[in-house]
Amino acid sequence: MNIWKISLSNIFHKPLYALLSVLSLSISIGLLLGIQQLDASIKYQFENSLGDVDMVLGAKGSPLQLVLASVLHMDNPTGNISLAEAEKITKNPLIKKAVPISYGDNYQGFRILGSNEEFAGLYEAELAEGREPSKSMEVTLGSTVAEETDLKIGDTFMSSHGLTENTVEVHNHPLTVVGIYKPTYKVIDKLIVTRLESIWDVHEHGENHHEEDEQQAGDEHHDEVEPQEEHNEEAHVSTAPHQEEGHHHEESDKEITAMLVSFRNVMGMLTMPRRINKETNMQAALPNYELERLFNFTGVGVRAVSWIAYIILAISCVTIFISLFKMVRERAFDLALMRTYGASNFQLLRIVAYEGFLLVFVSLLVGVLLSQVGLHFAFSAFKSGYNQDILLKLPYTQMVKTVLLILVMVGIAILLAILPILKMNVSKILSNEK
User: Fold this and answer.
1) Where can this protein be found (predicted)?
2) Number of compact structural domains in the chain
3) What gap in Å lies between CA 173 and CA 398, rounded to an integer?
4) In the beta sheet, which residues pair with residue 272?
5) Quick one: which H or E segment has residue 433?
6) Burial class (CB in 10 A: 0-12, 13-18, 19+), 300
7) What is the pLDDT of residue 222?
8) In this structure, are 171 and 134 located in the same domain?
């Protein structure tokens, strides 16, 4: 007697019940495995993208916004801070490394970030080809930027003002590609890295160009009116040196977007942020702490989806139980007849159990396929929104627990369905059927 063949024939005899059982169980498995992998992958990606950054020093505002903007580059900055004031704070002996960053422009949606030679070390980024920027207007591309824009070493491009793709406000000073980083699957992959001087030069040239346009418009207007009196001209000349002096003062007071800080020990992390927030006009935010708060907020949604999946799982187990129980009831005469031809109770139990586990096996395959398809679309949406590839992280322990839970619940459903076989009265069933 081929038990597998009998179990398969029972499944195909009631295709609607089998399809309903597989569909509901597959959806619950797909949701559970998919949400677990998505949650673990995004958490790993965020934590991995922090690099060697323990604290972010920036302008007053939301600390979470400061972390998202200056470390993960997923938000707008809270403002600028004085480079001189930030350097005074970061001379503290508790600080191991302080890396200034400044940005405000983009190319095709990828942020152009100005920093120094220590920035790449925060993310352990290595050059695939070329070199690091050594002077103003030279850039090194992250791997994602190079792939998406098709820029090569030696190519030049114009940056756009702002953090989103903008074809209207384009700067007139070309940037030259001198290097490309290897893929790190960290935030540096989606950045265009240059020196701080490049950011300052581009914006200072832009401001000077704007001032020249205003001056030219003023000269044209001056030609149309009559000359003023001599004492007005002298007053105008006397104020010019003061304006130039103020302009030089502004150039000397350089600003940055934020300072990325790493500490020598835990003591710095415990003492410095509170002192900075209390005694200065700047803000200190701890990336790990802020991300933990963010995960607590998003965790509500993850738990909600998980509970929905568990409810569907319970419904699918009930559906499998009803399907198997109904099969045992409807085929009681066939099962009793098999007993008279020498089949044991254990063989009859195996027929029903095999049918149930076949449904579970097919549901697992379909559920895993559904989870991977869902993850593909989720990762694609994340990449299109934030220009960042995500590494698939498999929470093996959590996934094994989920599969075991599914097997236990289905096993209970199967066990309840085969109980009538153990209590089956063969002679009574055969006599009633006749």
Assistant:
1) Cell membrane
2) 2
3) 52
4) none
5) helix 426-433
6) exposed
7) 44
8) yes
Please calculate the CA angle 58-62-63 and round it to the nearest 5 degrees: 60
In order along the chain (434 residues), what is the average pLDDT of each group of 10 residues?
Answer: 72 78 89 90 87 92 92 88 91 91 88 92 92 93 92 91 66 88 91 92 59 45 44 39 41 81 90 91 93 87 88 87 80 74 76 84 92 91 78 85 88 84 70 60
Alpha carbon distance 409, 417 (integer Å): 13
In a domain, 248, yes or no: no
Residues 77 and 12 in one domain: no
| Whole-structure pTM value | 0.72
The two tokens of residue 26 are 């597959």
What three-state secondary structure class fits 249? helix
How far is residue 70's CA from residue 113's CA, in Å, rounded to a whole number? 10
Do 190 and 125 contact (CB within 8 A), yes or no?
Answer: no
| Distance (Å, whole) CA 26 – CA 74 | 34
CA atoms within 13 A on the CB side of 107: 28
Q: What is the bridge-based pairing of β-strands 175-181 and 138-141?
A: parallel
- What the block records as the tokens of 124 is 């352990």
Neighbouring C-beta atoms of residue 323, cutoff 10 Å: 23
**Rounded Cα–Cα distance for residues 39 and 422 (Å):** 45
Count the alpha carbons within 13 Å of 311 in the hemisphere toward its beta carbon: 6
User: Which H or E run includes 17?
Assistant: helix 15-49
Task: For residues 276 and 133, state if they share a domain.
Answer: yes
82 Cβ partners below 8 Å, 6+ apart? 253, 254, 255
Range of the structural domain that residue 163 is part of: 50-219+254-291
Asked if 417 and 352 count as a contact pair (C-beta separation under 8 A), the reply is yes
Q: Would you say the C-alpha torsion 279, 263, 67, 115 has a positive or negative sign?
A: positive
Yes or no: say if 114 and 197 are a contact pair by the CB < 8 Å rule: yes
Amino acid identity of residue 87, one-letter, is E
